[in-house]
Design goal:
alpha+beta, Aldehyde Oxidoreductase, domain 4, seven-stranded mixed sheet, six-stranded mixed sheet, 23 helices, 33 strands, oxidoreductase, molybdenum, Carbon-monoxide dehydrogenase large subunit
């Protein structure tokens, strides 16, 4: 079985899986011949823009669009009442005391809940007239107090963002409270061990894909169908929600996706703007385009990350964790996202919080709160950067309290025997947790960074070394998502492979490429299975008409689930090819195999061979020669789902930083990543995923943050205010691959899309705290701004701050 997963045992041809072949997407993209949403031009096309709320919380008294309609070039302007669309509602099958469902209207109706919420759509002949029309709109509100933080959300007199969410709580679930938690804490407090408590916080971020959101919608009379071209990671879900909102059959909606300039999770949920534009196009019977500008992208698009963890952990005298007690609060903004709901962040954190460590007793409470901020969506990593940061800070604190080396305390706690079923009722498949940790530490020691740190300290320099050891759960199947009690349960994916008369194949997948090189990696899997040259494989995706249903791309599922569906479909096609070939060669089906050169050979007589072209010629052009019962087609379809808990990639990140005492700036001197994502399909692609993810993790650790004024006004409306790292701030990153083949996927691959982002914040934060170790200060909040570092250094020399408790930087 393992040989089958690793390639094509029936084939003697070249192995494509594992080869760093040139990316097939690159020629057209590098030559500027890609086709993105804003490249779409249709005859008679109109342009759309949105009138957006200027207050964070308030009742809509009036939206006057009369002056808008008088603006030259404006064709139409609509409010919610004009379009009469169904709301977007994301649901969990949980009781009312655990989950409060809320509706997100396509255009705000009676109330606005964040600055930037769309209240009307303006349609005009060109983008400039759209802007003029938006400026002519007059919206009147009765402002309410805004909820902008955990403290204001939970206040006794707090205004309600949604009346149906008492206390501004969308989800409140205690998933685990295993026996022995209290006993373990009592033993640690009274015995030779220790109890540590860490409160970690992460700032609100924007996923910031290079290409903003956009949509072109048009009505096709010939097909009696609404064609929606949009940049989404989940085209089939967009079709489903759009059809329900417009109250039309799904067959009348077709969603296609051209090239897409990134998504990172922000585009794996269904937005309201694309539905409003589609409704306008249908109403006007004209093509309509909307392209999100950068100000909208920064203030009104789905945001992410704002979370708080209060983590208590008990350790014995040997530094082994004996119990974990966690309280998680995630600020999900104004609305639940579809289909994942507001529960996605706290439910993931609660289920996976123990990370790579053997935790014998576990208690957790996870809450999602609503606030007057733009709603949140999954962003690369989805709670894992935050709960990993909490766990890694706990490990660092316990190491210091017990006088144990920070790497050694991790060694004593990481999972080493597999499969391992944790206290969280999750089974972890084999990985290299201990090996990656050892190799990462050896890398820094062999390069002399520990000696450098000590020499630098003698010179008054602040050098720190930090680690993060973690796993990335990938290949979430239907079983894993069903545990969250989602009413819409993602998981499986589908692939179809068709061979034409030239022996070339077209592979269709329900996944959605937005920078992960699917055109290359999925083709490698199919080519290996079929013994084809890579040039004879073409991938098609991003079209709801080509495949019945697909769940798109998120949660590192493309190769694990989508690639496995491709592999199974290719295997079925290979079996069909062998059946026809055996008939043509007048031998038994078990006496033939793929020859690895685009054909089938007879095993006991290698001179007897038939090419794929010959087989296809018979299948399509001379079908009377086919064996009895074989249909005249060379097509195979397969679905694939991962049973149980999925699979886990793992990694250790090792970082060396220097803190400048004059400016507070943090400079990363060394960044090493040792990762294991199972069988590597394309080494350069995986390296790119790791490095890109690490860059985004560094951004969250040191730079990017959206803050809000007390009235709910967002601080970051441009790149002047939202600080994004450049190539100058991102260091050279080395990536070392370990390889533990996965037993649950066809290729042996695990996911690799999110690991870099997951590990970077904790590794950088630990390195910063090590650099400030002489101060007694500990920083547990990201991003770490220069002023935070300066405050720590100032506090260290202040005579008023004589204890660590007093000197801890406020969260």
């Amino acid at each position: 079985m393992s040989d089958v997963r690793r390639g094509s045992p029936q084939s003697d041809g070249k192995r494509w899986v594992g080869a760093a072949v040139p990316r097939r997407e690159d020629p057209r993209l590098l030559r500027g011949r890609g086709r993105f949403i804003d490249d779409v031009q249709l005859s008679g096309m109109l342009h759309a823009g949105f009138v957006r709320s200027t207050v964070a919380h308030g009742r809509i008294l009036d939206i006057d669009l009369s002056a808008v309609r008088e603006v030259e070039g404006v064709v139409a302007a609509y409010t919610a009442e004009d379009l009469d669309l169904g709301d977007i509602v994301a649901l969990l099958d949980r009781p009312p005391e655990e989950f409060a469902p809320t509706a997100m209207p396509i255009l705000a109706k009676e109330k606005v809940r964040f600055v930037g919420e769309p209240v009307a759509v303006v349609i005009a002949a060109d983008p400039y007239s759209v802007e003029d029309g938006i400026e002519a709109a007059v919206a009147t509100y009765e402002p309410f107090d805004a909820v902008v933080s955990e403290e204001t959300a939970f206040a006794a007199d707090a205004p309600l963002v949604h009346e149906e969410a008492p206390g501004n709580v969308l989800l409140d679930v205690s998933m685990f409270d295993t026996p022995g938690v209290d006993t373990a804490f009592e033993a640690a407090e009274s015995g030779p061990g220790c109890v540590v408590e860490v409160v970690t916080r992460s700032g609100r971020q924007n996923a910031l894909p290079l290409e903003t959101r956009g949509v072109v919608a048009s009505w096709d009379d010939r097909d009696d169908q609404l064609l929606v071209q949009t940049c989404t990671q989940v085209p089939h879900q967009v079709r489903t929600v759009l059809a329900r909102s417009l109250r039309v059959p799904e067959r009348t909606v077709r969603v296609t996706v051209p090239d897409m300039g990134g998504g990172f999770g922000q585009k794996c949920v269904v937005g309201r703007e694309e539905i409003a534009v589609a409704a306008a196009a249908r109403k006007l019977d004209r093509p309509v385009k909307w392209i999100e500008d950068r100000r909208e992208a920064l203030t009104a698009a789905f945001l992410a990350r704002e979370q708080r963890y209060r983590t208590r952990a008990a350790f014995d005298a040997d530094g082994r964790i004996t119990a974990l007690d966690v309280d998680v609060v995630c600020d999900m903004g104004a609305y639940s996202c579809y289909p994942f709901t507001a529960g996605i962040e706290p439910l993931m954190a609660s289920a996976e919080m123990p990370s790579v460590y053997q935790v014998p007793a576990y208690r957790v409470r996870g809450r999602a709160i609503t606030s007057n901020k733009a709603p949140t969506a999954p962003y690369r990593g989805v709670s894992r950067p935050q709960y990993v940061m909490a766990m890694e800070r706990v490990m660092e604190r316990a190491a210091r309290e017990l006088g144990i080396d920070p790497v050694e305390i991790r060694r004593r706690n990481v999972i080493t025997e597999f499969p391992y079923t944790g206290v969280n009722d999750v089974t972890y498949d084999p990985g290299t947790y201990r090996e990656s940790l050892d190799l990462a530490e050896a890398t820094l020691r062999d390069e002399g960074w520990y000696e450098f740190r000590e020499r630098a300290a003698a010179e008054g320099r602040h050098i720190g070394i930090g680690y993060c050891c973690f796993s990335e759960r990938t290949g979430y199947g239907s079983d894993a998502f069903a545990k969250r009690k989602m009413q819409v349960v993602p998981g499986f994916d589908v692939s179809e492979i068709r061979m034409d008369t030239t022996g070339s194949v077209v592979v269709t997948s329900g996944t959605m490429n937005h920078g992960q090189s699917h055109e290359t990696t999925l083709a490698q899997i199919a080519a290996d299975r079929l013994g084809l040259d890579l040039d004879k494989v073409k991938l098609r995706q991003g079209d709801t008409e080509r495949i019945a249903y697909g769940w798109g791309t998120f949660a590192s599922r493309s190769v694990t689930i989508g690639g496995s569906a491709v592999s199974v479909a290719a295997r079925r096609l290979a079996e069909l090819l062998c059946t026809i070939a055996a008939h043509l060669l007048k031998t038994r089906p078990d006496n033939v195999r793929l020859d690895g050169d685009g054909g089938v050979v007879q095993i006991d007589d290698s001179a007897q061979r038939v090419s794929f072209e010959d087989i296809a010629d018979v299948a399509y052009l001379r079908s009377h020669l086919l064996p009895k019962g074989v249909e005249p087609t060379l097509t195979a379809t397969a679905s694939f789902d991962v049973a149980g808990d999925g699979t886990f990639s793992n990694a250790t990140h090792a970082v060396v930083v220097e803190a400048d005492p004059g400016t507070g700036q943090i400079k990363i001197l060394r960044y090493a990543c040792v990762e294991d994502c199972g069988v590597v399909i394309h080494p350069q692609v995986v390296d790119g995923q790791c490095r890109g993810g690490i860059a985004q993790g560094i951004a969250g650790a040191l730079f990017e943050e959206v803050t809000y004024a007390d009235n709910g006004e967002p601080s970051a409306a441009s790149f002047i205010d939202y600080l994004v790292p450049t190539a100058t701030e991102i260091p050279d990153i080395t990536v070392t691959h370990l390889e533990t083949p996965c037993a649950f996927t066809e290729s042996g691959a695990k996911g690799a899309g999110e690991g870099g982002t997951i590990g970077a914040p904790a590794a950088v934060l630990n390195a910063i705290n090590d650099a400030l170790r002489h101060t007694g200060i500990e920083i547990d909040t990201t991003p770490v701004h220069p002023q935070t570092v300066l405050a720590a250094l100032d506090a260290a020399i202040s005579p008023k701050l004589s204890s660590r408790e007093e000197a801890t930087i406020p969260s």
